[in-house]
Amino acid sequence: MNNKVTMNKLQKTQIAPNKHLKTIEKLFSSNMFPAYGQLATVTENNIPQVRTVHFRYLKAYQELMFPTHIESQKWHQLKNKTLSGCYFSSRHLIQVRWEATPIFVDQSITEHQNERNIVWKKMRKDIKRAYWTDFNNEKGISPEEFKINSPCPSMGIIICNTYAWDIWKLNATDYSKSKRFIYRLIDGEWHATKSSPLYSKTKHNNSDWGKNE
Ligand SMILES: Cc1cc2nc3c(=O)[nH]c(=O)nc-3n(C[C@H](O)[C@H](O)[C@H](O)COP(=O)(O)O)c2cc1C
Description:
Layout: H1 21-28, E1 35-42, E2 48-58, E3 63-69, H2 73-77, E4 83-89, E5 94-105, H3 113-122, H4 125-139, E6 155-169, E7 179-186, E8 189-195
Antiparallel strand pairs: 1-2, 1-4, 2-3, 3-6, 4-5, 5-6, 6-7, 7-8
Bound molecules: flavin mononucleotide (FMN).
């Protein structure tokens, strides 16, 4: 992954090409079918690490994000780095991969607190409780002393400031008819390249996809 300067302010360009915004919304906004996707980071020693997180798209803000503990490995590993995400929807037969500059929103960041509050509100009660009891234990406070509706200080969100997408629509009976497009953001505009479902030949200036071809 490329090194990128950490940003806390989102530069507002559309998070995905126009023609895929509805797809992004469909994949990442459902409460009934949560988008449990994979988030990749690298360690200090360049060892890749991947784990599942719950990605959410907030339509009102046109932002893709996930919640996490501000002491987690991923929070630290993403400082001054870019992130890679991947999600396959078996309902819609679409794989989306993206690269993004992370925007870290903990309770001290005034921008994006609305989104942090919304994500907290949408989280399951047992997860909220897990955050609060852990927080209270760490602080030596009675584990039950919290207001479940207030976002726990240890919960942050990471907003994906996307600059590359790989959108792959699977043809379930004829693999070669699957449709794959790679997009990257250049000077505020999304540029598309049609790609084989087997491999990509695209050379990206600001993305590692296709770098070795
Ligand atoms: C279905 C599922 C959903 C998860 N969602 C999240 C999430 O939204 N945020 C998160 O930080 N961890 C989530 N986790 C836990 C992570 O996969 C991971 O184990 C944990 O965050 C520690 O990761 P780290 O030490 O690499 O930071 C989820 C795990 C599963 C199985």
